[in-house]
């Protein structure tokens, strides 16, 4: 009798462990898919807005998004920031694809081909942004200059090391640095999403027109530092054996995060990204 009860308890525990593991796995997949959809839409928006303005010869429109971004006679700075935005759009469109295991395993040539374009775009985006900051500075002043420059340097470093370890065949290190690069790559998307949610929840508390308010100063670093910390957790706990309760709790948190991503994506697409993307495809080239 005691033995049958023990077996029953063991089977129930095993079943709970299996369910918790599957729940965490699928909630993670759902979050990644939601992030990719949102980041890809934002990437298309960047290409639509900045590329279409360039095509129409109306680059003063860039200043609607960030004050004093474009100056007619600042050729080098304009080229740098233009390359940053256009390459950034490519990065957001391609980044999540590189994380899909079955593509990497089943279609390694596709993974390598997309990876090369992704890394080149990352280099262009980081160098272009750094060139602009060095010549013109950011609208938010010294703190934003420092925060965004560190971001660009880290992205450059992550790109170089991702490539280096791929070439050397050290694929564990390659994967680790690729994840860090991805965490940085989605920073521009998170920057807009964080501002959108903050404005929605607080009415823009702590924001200033010149991006020098308390919230602005936090955001000079917040759009990439937490991402890197989360990436480090994923890199270092691959073999960590979490309890079923911890996995279910993590699944709930992931689902809540997914809900926020989808909600933010809906509003941003409806009122900002969507009209620009549709207008781009309707242009008469």
Structure explained in plain terms:
Helix content is 79%, strand content 0%. It has helices spanning 2-56, 75-94, 101-106, 108-136, 142-167, 171-185, 187-202, 214-222, 225-236, 244-281. It contains 10 helices and no strands. With 285 residues, it is an all-alpha fold.
Quick structural overview:
The protein is an all-alpha fold and 285 residues long.
**In total, how many beta strands?**
0
Order of helices and strands: HHHHHHHHHH
| Sheet/helix structural class | mainly alpha
Q: Low-confidence runs (pLDDT<50, min 5 residues)?
A: none
Number of helices: 10
Assign an overall shape.
globular
Distance between the termini: 79 Å
Mean pLDDT across all residues, rounded? 82
Could you give a short account of the major beta sheet? none
Q: Rounded to an integer, what's the Rg over CA atoms?
A: 22 Å
Beta content comes to under 5%
Helix amount: over 70%
